[in-house]
Design goal:
Distance between the termini: 32 Å
CATH architecture of one domain: Sandwich
Strand order of the largest sheet: 1-2-7-6
Number of strands: 10
Radius of gyration: 16 Å
Helix content: under 10%
Number of helices: 1
Order of helices and strands: HEEEEEEEEEE
CATH topology of one domain: Immunoglobulin-like
Structural class: mainly beta
CATH class of one domain: Mainly Beta
Shape: globular
């Protein structure tokens, strides 16, 4: 699977520009079949831990490190025990780690990234420019009315 949230059309699941999709699929083949030493995929969420008022997220498939396309990281949300989501601040710490927090949450429990139908502002990538896949650290019921972002 390759991530295409940055080239998809909000109204059509099939991107009009197929070239980036083909290039991303080719990276996998070059790395896995032909043993090219390239980053084959986008950053992949690996784990999280809670550290006080912050959630620390670790990634794999980072190449030489994760990055934010176009400035500060965007499209992270965070929730506490009440499962009420708030827009969050996020910063890259080291090559494979992001710290997420919000002034609205004192005891965070979960983070989501690009968790929307059309996350146009999602900008987490690796050093190859491959966009990270949307992810969530929770397994909460999606039908819960508290899942909307404030």
């Amino acid at each position: 699977m390759v991530v295409t949230i940055d080239v998809s059309d909000a109204n059509d699941g099939h991107p009009k520009n197929k070239q980036p999709v083909g290039e991303r699929l080719a990276r996998w083949a070059l790395a896995d079949v032909y043993n090219f030493k390239i980053t084959k995929s986008a950053p992949v969420y690996a784990s999280y831990s809670i550290r006080g008022k912050e959630i620390v997220i670790k990634f794999t498939d980072i190449g030489n490190g994760i990055a934010a396309r176009y400035g500060e990281l965007k499209y992270f949300t965070i929730a506490g025990e009440n499962r009420k989501w708030h827009w969050a601040k996020a910063k890259i710490v080291g090559k494979d780690t992001i710290v997420v927090w919000s002034d609205e949450i004192t005891e965070p429990k979960a983070v989501r990234y690009a968790w929307a139908g059309n996350p146009t502002e999602a900008n987490l990538t690796n050093d190859s420019g491959l966009p990270a896949s949307p992810f969530r650290t929770d397994d909460w019921d999606e039908t819960d009315k508290k899942s909307a972002v404030d």
